[in-house]
Amino acid sequence: MKKRDLTKKVLCTVLAASVFGVFSNGIVEAAKAFEDGTYHLEEGQYYTDDGENVYFENATVTVDGTYEVQNVEIEGDNKITVNGAGVVKEGIDMGMRNPAGSVNAELVAKNAKIYGIIDIAAGKATLENSEIISGGTLETEEPGKYVQENIRVHTEGSGQGKLTLNNVNVTGDVMAEYDGAEVEITGGTFTEVEYYEYDDGHNSLIVGSDGKFVTDGYTEVHAEKGGKVTINDAVLNTGVSAFGNDSVVTVNNSSISTKGSIFAAAGAKIYLNGDANTVYSLDGEDVFMALTGSEDGESGDGLIEINGGTLKAENLRYMVGKTNDNPWTPELEKDGFEITKGGIVLKDKGVIETKGDQIFEHGVDVSSDEAVLASTSGAVTNDAISYEGGTLKLTDEKYSLNYVNSAKDALIDYQSDSETKIVMTGTLVTDSGNNEMDVDDAASIGDDIELDQVTVNADKNLLVGSDANNASGEFDGVVVEDKVANGFSAGKLNLAAESKGMVITNAENVTLGGSTGGELITVAGSAVADASKLKVVVGTTSDVDGAAVRNGSLTIGNSLATSDTKYNLTGSVTVNKDSALNVNGKTTVTGGVELNSGSVNIGNGTLVSNITAKGNTSITGAAEVEKLTGTDEKTVINIGNSKKAGNVTVEIADLKGATVFLDPAWVDGAEITDASKMAVAGTNGKVTLNGKYVVGENSVMSFGVDNNEKAQETFAKTGLTWGKDAITAGLYINGSVDLNGQAIVVDGKLTEAKNAVTTAGTFTAAANSVVMVDGQAITGNNAAITGVTEANVTIDKDSKLYIDGAKKNETYHVIDGVNNTGWQDANIISNNALLVFEGKNTNSKFDVTASYDKVDNVYGAGAVEIANIVDRTLETKDAGDKAFDFFNAAANANNNATKAAQIAAFNSAANMGELAGVNHGTYSMSNAMTDVVAHHLSLATHGEQDKDIWAHYIHNKEDIDGMDFGGVDGSYEAQYNGIVVGSDLYKNGKTTAGIALSYADGNINGSNIASTTKNDAEYYGASLYGRIDNGDSAILGDISYMHSDNDITQNNSGHEITASADADAFSIGIRAEQAYKAGAGKFVPYAGIRYMHLGAGDYSNSLGMEYNADDQNLWLLPVGVTYSAEVQSGDWTVKPIAEVGYVWTMGDRDTDQTVSLNGASDTFGFETADSGSFIGRLGIEAEKADVTYGLSYEYQKGDTVKANKWMANLTWSF
User: What is the rounded distance in angstroms from the CA atom of residue 522 to the CA atom of residue 534?
Assistant: First the structure.
């Protein structure tokens, strides 16, 4: 806990604004503004230069390219969509100036890395697959003041603001403040950092005497003054808190591990809703508290509900504020707060793991077995907790029945309506031994006390639910002898020799299975050899003396069971009417489960068993069934119910006319992963029905596979949306399913099996349904669906048919036995975006034939630069042709999920040379060589030219971002390492001439959403150069040539494409210089002109595509000034050098390229060079005797190219 949590926690808006310098009147000059318009920045366009702020006002902008910006500010009615990856260096502000006018602002950003404050006063921001690094410190415009960065939605003045984080990793503080402020988190990891203490005005951080900020706890996820935070399936390495009336933090299936606190104060609420694998743990120094009090207009009781998951708290009393040594308690009292009595509510599936003395007056005295036997709990003394339900997991090393009974009684005495269970995880000590007890003793405790490691011993054939004298008889083959009135919970049940099983009735429950798993029922100490010899009967079909009702329940796996805890029941289970088998952990019932109008409810695990069903039965949760057997046409097997979905896989289904009905209720935001699912594997891809299958709302049925994941994966390829207002029910067929006079109904409107029409031969695909088939399994004689009666076949005009793996000119047999029924062509789709389908009824079949649509029809005219080539190849070639296979892969949703990615895949292949920097790299290395020659000849470095031998090493790193290529993101990184060696061969008066040779290797790497491209390049060059001196002026000139060899590899849509390309650059340049003395140094302004002829030779790639680019004629105009000075130090002459300049590039900066294949061609343009670039260089040379050594660094920046060049040179004069 930190002090700011119970004081006013508002970071001043003006202060936060001043940090970024964008809240002055108007927009600061550095900001790039998008106002009152619609903008679409294509892939390959660089969004804004490094170092700029970006301001949006009433703009619609889509960014598919990369970006790097400082601060982003959004005001007004904006719609900003950022698909490209990039960096925001100084945070995001939404609606800070005009909250009321910005409530409709929207920002969606993917793959972003954001530093600093995120401040949302109005509007909605959604971040996906991103990272936020906040929580550090930041200096404001007022010197000496510091504030802490945070992520904050605060709606004071607007009433509406929301931040959604999907799979975002966050470092720092996250807050929702005021009514209408929401933060919704799904996935991701949240990491705390130290929180710093503020001054009394909460305006700046406090700096201690050591010059460091004073720490005050740790950052956290926080709701305040009516704010709402919802967290789903995340990892929280951070605290959680809520302050003020109607403030709520809801944590769903997200473990918490923090050095900080979890607390709710002044009317705030925290709901912890986890599963058996969810854990909440604190470091031991901070608190888990519900607090009552008032501050800053907020007042009331704090509430923390533990509805699921485990709070691990060995020092629970300290954490909840019930010890005298907690330093926070007196501090809170000073501020007018007190511990809320019963403010921490344990209920439902929540667990508190601690020792007995943290709840009760006494723990177990484990000093000796005698002391253990004598121990009692005393009264409940921890009144910070309300014990409504859930489980107290008491971890005392040993315990006795005496202690357990006293704890149970004390809990009821303290809270008479308590339904909280107690689990004892230690060793049970009894007079006769450890961890064993008689069934009578176990029943006296009841099933709300879970004896985790205990074996309960019973006599022959146990009846649970009545101990009346006349409670006897045979129940489903079990003749009861031993009897107890109450259920119990233990690790294992051991029955006497020759026992046949156990019967449970009178609404009693028996729980078997502790945290360590294992065999659940033994006979005479061992598992039975024959599973048919042991049966558990849950509920009875006739009355039992002493039992008011017939139903009962068996629970496998206590509250400590995880999904991985393994249990085995060697025997069978019969579940009769209104009774239930509840399963946790990985449970195997070797003798099978029989449902007689009973139910199986699988919680956090999986049931592995054969199942036989009769009457109206249900299965929820995950079950792996080798054989599912029905009884008759009256039997209904419900997969899922109104509260929970089912997830069932079946090897063999022998329904005998029964109906399987899939139907869980819709919940908000449901996806196909939330649907009820069932898969029947069948034999060799064929399933023959002898029962009916009704796929109701929010459900998917699969045939021909042994899992439910395949249907989900296939649905993901369709591009369709699952939801209450979209696709509501689905059918997947991998092979063929024969109705055999039965029925399949796919109708998302159905909520009850009785409402489905299932007459013989019925097949129904209702509105908002999708039928998915494996195309390659139905190209021969087999149809996906056979055995129908045409009069009973109904396919709605809005139903979709998806053909997986469809190929050109193939015909797919979808339904056999129909002459006038099928899907509309527009509703037949596949994972290949280029395919279109025609459905026809021929020869009593509904067949679908695939053909290719034109590329421009699919993606839009001009979107794919090589549309003609793709169309011709798909028309004239077949599978096995490399280009044909690649184009199909590029259009396949398996490889490229979106159309944008598919377009990028095609255009990446079209732009192989450009993405590999063939032309630009040759241009760049030619300029690097001629720049070196100019440096050698310059008056700034060589006042009087000698006959020299010289060498120059170059390491050049370029970032190309946003260069205009043909419809693709022109971004890559290039690194060159080379050497230029020259000699001044001629010296006569004012004239010097020489020759230089150069070699370099290049490594170019680029990627986009569909491809990665790599180029291993080599560069060879030569230059003839000369200089004519005229006192303080000189004319420099050169004639140069550069050749490049490029080995290109592109990984694209699962294919590796290779090419070898050559390029040549010929240039001639002249430059004039004039030296002006300035003290110990001189300024040398210069201006020049260079002509370059740049061309790439024709080449082809491994797909057979041929590339021919027009040659380019370029003119470069460099101007600048160089300053140098000479400093004598002993025998050394040291010369510092600085240069600034600008180079204009004119002429054919972009050129046309023609790509050809299979008699078709496409022509498009691409860019090679920026229109101009700034140059800055710093260097130093040191000369001694006849040798000169030099080091220098040069930075060059254009619109799309940034270069960092490091150089070393050596000159020998003679």
Answer: 9
Distance (Å) of CA 220 to CA 193, 226, 816: 9, 17, 61
Provide the 8-state DSSP code for 818. Answer: -
Alpha helices, H only, 731-838: none
- Radius of gyration of the chain from Cα atoms? 39
Residues in the chain: 1214
Q: Residue 293 carries which DSSP code?
A: E
The pLDDT, as a whole number, for residue 326 is: 84
Q: What is the DSSP string of 1143-1200?
A: EEEEE-SEEEEEEEETTEEEEEEEE-S-SEEEEEEEEEEEEETTEEEEEEEEEEEESS
CA dihedral 75, 81, 86, 87 (to 10 degrees): 20
Q: What is the pLDDT of residue 142?
A: 58
Alpha-carbon distance 1069 to 176, whole Å?
Answer: 63
d(CA 114, CA 70): 10
What is the per-residue pLDDT for 11?
Answer: 26
Q: Given this model, what pLDDT does residue 1195 score? A: 96
- Residue in 389, 312, 304 with CA at minimum distance from that of residue 347: 389
330 Cβ contact list (under 8 Å, min separation 6): none
- What's the pLDDT at 157? 65
Looking only at the bridges linking them, the beta strands covering 344-354 and 489-495 are unpaired
pTM given for the model: 0.75
pLDDT at 1058: 97
Contact 746, 767 (CB under 8 A): no
How far is residue 899's CA from residue 858's CA, in Å, rounded to a whole number? 9
Could you tell me if 661 and 685 are in contact, meaning their C-beta atoms sit under 8 angstroms apart? no
Given a contact cutoff of 8 angstroms between Cβ atoms, the answer to whether 1010 and 905 are in contact is yes
Collect all residues with Cβ–Cβ distance below 8 Å to 709 and sequence separation of at least 6: none
Provide the angle, in degrees to the nearest 10, between the axes of the packed helices 882-890 and 899-910: 150
Residue 495's DSSP bridge partners are 523
Residue 303 is inside which H or E element, if any? strand 303-312
The string of DSSP codes covering 628-676 is EE--STT-EEEES-SS--EEEEEEEEE-TT-EEEE-PPP-TT--GGGSE
| CA quadruple 459, 460, 461, 465: dihedral sign | negative
C-alpha distances (whole Å) from 891 to each of 496, 831, 834 are 67, 8, 6
Question: Cα angle vertex 976, ends 973, 978, to 5°?
Answer: 175
Q: Which residues contact 832 (CB under 8 A, 6 or more apart)?
A: 806, 807, 888, 891, 892, 893
**Chunked in runs of 10, what are the mean pLDDT values of the chain (1214 residues)?**
36 26 27 37 35 73 76 86 84 87 90 89 92 72 65 80 94 91 95 81 78 81 95 95 95 94 95 94 86 92 96 93 86 90 96 96 94 95 96 94 93 94 92 87 91 94 93 90 95 96 97 96 95 96 94 95 95 97 97 97 96 97 97 96 93 97 81 94 92 96 96 91 93 96 95 91 96 93 93 96 91 94 95 93 93 95 96 93 96 87 95 95 96 94 77 95 87 94 90 95 92 96 95 94 97 96 98 93 96 96 97 97 92 94 96 96 95 96 91 95 95 84
Exposure string for 863-888, b = 16+ CB within 10 A, e = fewer: bbbbbbbbbbbbeebeeebbbbbbbb
Question: Cα–chain-centroid distance for residue 422?
Answer: 38
Copy the structure tokens of residue 1190.
Answer: 């030099």
Q: Where on the phi/psi map is residue 195: left (φ > 0), alpha (ψ -120 to 50), or beta?
A: beta
Tokens of 573: 């289970």
In contact, 71 and 93? CB cutoff 8 Å: yes
Rounded to 5 degrees, what are φ and ψ at 767?
-60, 145
Tokens of 641: 């119910």
CA gap 338, 346 in Å, rounded? 20
Structure tokens at 1173: 């670039």
Instruction: Let me know if 706 is exposed, middle or buried by CB neighbors in 10 A (0-12, 13-18, 19+).
Output: middle
Instruction: Specify the amino acid at residue 1175.
Output: I
